Glycerol operon regulatory protein (Haloechinothrix alba), 260 residues
Amino acid sequence: MTERKPGPGGGVQSLQRAFELLEGLADTGGEASLSELAATTGLPMPTIHRLIRTLLTLGYVRQNSNRRYALGSRLIRLGEGASRQFGTWARPYLAELVEQVGETANLAVLERDEVVYVAQVPSTHSMRMFTEVGRRLLPHGTGVGKAMLSQVPPEEVRELLHRTGMPAYTPHTHTEPEELLEHLRGIAAQGFALDESEQELGVRCIAVPLADTPVPAAVSVSGPEGRLTKEAVDHLAPLVQRTAAQLSAHLAEADLEFGA
């Protein structure tokens, strides 16, 4: 039996390289040629050929008609499972936030250029905001999306907006890239984003990005403008920021425990 070479930290090098290849595909927008993968990952071409054949067989990579390679459909199941687990352990933090602010709390991640809601704890008000878990929206028109984009380098944001376009959800949605980029700089400076009826008329949202997460993520509270007033934002935003810090710390502790 051929012995597997150990990777950093005693791991299996071939497994490490397979994930480097998948992440390289994701970094190129989900599709690339073998030469582009070699440039992105720094892996030798013979290694890429061998790994690609295995990943094709397993369904984690597919080959398009133009002979370029793309992320395979079997990754969707893994991603959806990870998102559900992410949402499950986040719910107690969201529930505490709802008790503090009285409005619906959400957790979302950025996945393939879209905001995906992975957890929610609803308000106890009879009139409350519902954004279904699993719902996908473009990031430029949501509070959580803008919070996440505020942590992304401007050139990467421009590329994302070029891929997705900037359709208007309401008359208040940002639809010009440079205007949005200027808006994102303000969000980064103040530490939270506001959705002012940009995704749904009459709804205000306060969103804060999580720090040092494997994928961009953000937590938010949302409610009718009549309850979640501009005056209320000043004392509610720090509570959302504290929840974001707690979620970030929980993730960091989990990573340390796994790596120990």
